[in-house]
Amino acid sequence: MIAPPLPQGGRPAIPQLHQLTGLRGIAAWFVVFYHIRLASLDLFPGDVIAVFARGYLAVDLFFMLSGFVMWLNYGARLRSEGWGGAPAFWWKRIARIWPLHMAVLAAMIAFVAVLVATGRPTEGYPIAELPLHILLLQNWGFTHELSWNDPAWSISTELAAYVVFPALVLVARWERLRPGALCALLALLLAALWAVFEANGHDRLGQDIAGLGLWRCLLGFAAGMVLALVWQAMSARVSGPAIPALGAIAALVAGFGLGLPETAFVPATFACILLALALDRGIASRLLGSAPLRWLGDVSYATYLTHFFLFILFKIAFVDDSGQLTAGTLALFLVLVLAVSAAAFHLFEKPAQRWMNARRPRLFGGTPARLPN
């Protein structure tokens, strides 16, 4: 959820864009259905399975949304505090992402210990890579494939984005750029994302995650930062969502009509959709900002990090040798994910975040500062 306005005087209030919180919740569930799609072939028609098979694209929306929110929440603060504010920012973000990641990883380590004790295969759980996973460095180019908790690869790259974020904020006075220049910068970042994949012979964003996932995150995150600046400029001019909405439609028509690779048009579509929703004050905004969807967004990090391992355990307990879910077991799994997400968020994620922030080491700024969540 986007944080409330900062209490300190002299700083601009942070807007309450609840529709983006709801959007994050929906995106997390697209990732869930992506991971269970092959076990749902008997339940959904082929066209629906094909949609689920593109669920990995929700991660690119996460990256862009993260850059957008980071700029709105921390851009002005880091601008005023300079490099002296960076350590506190880094600790705040570590407190946000690391405890739940480590809790899920610890549960998986216990699971693998049981596999070893019972003589069962442990492919996908390389012990030698555990230090990288503990430090959230596993997708910084040190490994060749995903392992352990697969979705955590994106959390690893998010950490890299947080590391460079203060430098991105301080390197230039981005807010002084005119909207046209910001849009040109955004187009350049999206073109760079396409070029990285093209240079490596890939036309889908979900390919070679171990090798290209870091670039996928950093460029998407930076694009989100620029989008936040575009939103600020358009908001000041009382612009509605019509222009970016038309841009999203144009990107989709061009992409499908010309048979473009998804790397060439999906990020641009997401950028336009995100900007349109941020500018919207109509039914779409109200729907995505409704209490149920905001709640889904609040617990979305727990949903994202826990569902993969939960499905491994669920298949062992409830799925037969066919590997296919029934309507009943699918419903049971979805309820389980919701329940675990809620419990993890309220009983562990938020308390652990508060505990870490209350004990920030001197290396990261000494006495805990009142930074937004």
The gist of it:
The protein is mainly alpha-helical. The protein contains 14 helices and no strands. It has one domain (18-364).
Key attributes of the depicted protein:
373 residues, mainly alpha, 14 helices
Write up what this structure looks like:
- The protein is mainly α and 373 residues long.
- It has one domain (18-364).
- The chain is 68% helix and 0% strand.
- It contains 14 helices and no strands.
- The protein has helices spanning 18-36, 46-52, 57-81, 86-117, 130-134, 152-170, 179-199, 209-236, 242-257, 262-279, 283-288, 291-298, 300-318, 327-357.
- Helix 1 (18-36) crosses helix 12 (291-298).
- The protein is globular and about 65 Å long.
- The chain starts with 17 loop residues before the first helix and ends in a 16-residue tail after the last helix.
How are the SSEs placed, and which strands pair?
Layout: H1 18-36, H2 46-52, H3 57-81, H4 86-117, H5 130-134, H6 152-170, H7 179-199, H8 209-236, H9 242-257, H10 262-279, H11 283-288, H12 291-298, H13 300-318, H14 327-357
Helix pairs in contact: 1-3, 1-12, 1-13, 3-6, 3-8, 3-10, 4-6, 4-13, 4-14, 6-8, 7-8, 7-10, 8-10, 9-10, 13-14
